[in-house]
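Exercise 7.
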Amino acid sequence: MHLVYIGQRGDKLGDIPTRDASIDETYVIRAGKLRRYHGQSLLKQLLDLPTLTKNVRDIFRVLIGTFESWRLLGKLRPDLIFIKGGFVGVPVGIAASRRHVPFITHDSDSVPGLANRLIARWATIHAVALPKTVYPYPLDKTVTVGVPVQEQFKKVDEKLEQSYRKDLGIQEYKKVIFITGGGQGAKKLNMMVMDIVPELLRDYDDLVIVHVAGRKHDQSISEHYSKTLSKPYLSRVMVKGYVEDLYKYSGAADVVIARAGATNIAEFAVQGKACIIVPNPLLTSGHQLKNAEILTNSGAVKLVTESKNSARDLLSATTYLLNNPKERQMLEQKICTFANPDSAKHLAELIISSVQK
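Solution. The predicted structure, written as tokens, is:
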């Protein structure tokens, strides 16, 4: 089997697929997005000149990307295309429909993304994370597979947790907090965390904090900590831009602080980690809010919403979990009910069987 990856030109994480040994070739095309913000009126967004200008510009990027995809698919002649979602899927999906190349889409969130909705009419199969009745797709073309995660993510017991801490050089600390805002980071979440780090370090002298800030933010956050923390405190803060072995960092943690992205949630559910979730309220369709609502209603996570007091709320939730091992254990048990460790296998079988038809 020959695997080809098509990414978006200018993607800040675009170098990662090129280093993946399982991918035989990588290509990039132009793509654009429609900027919409959850909770804001359509009129307000239409009257916002910078947003309108970028949206108009990106229409042309999609048109160019569709032509690039048409030529690329003619060259590659793929048997099947898998589209995970995201802006790059639109020109590829349109071109695939015109060249009669079958493709499978996948939705990780409870609310389908706009990109997948735009190309849904031409998809052969819709692979989804939750029960298929949740989604607006034809039931006979929809298959529930869960959210695929890397094979390194697995249930973490005390022995494995200590092994990860040893690998990361933090085995001397009794308490570990891990923060991530996703692959590119999350500015507001980073700011909330920076506000509470000094107090956490002061109150817990056996605590180390691992802050994965995103490639755009790690330098400024490192400089902030260097200026505001004394040397003893600074030695207990690790700032990373991006980590490929994220499973070790989350696996080593007592408490994970993260956005409500479906993939990260799936990863932490497989590991069985106590999580504090801070959903992004502005993302289109409010899919992170919906993800967080499902988890919170099941008692699987602690929820902190963005507000004027969000930093204090985050501090309160974090200290509560650090001080209450039984509460952490309860969250670990409940989030495990959302785990689907065989999702990648099910999705691979679905793709392979579709190619063989």
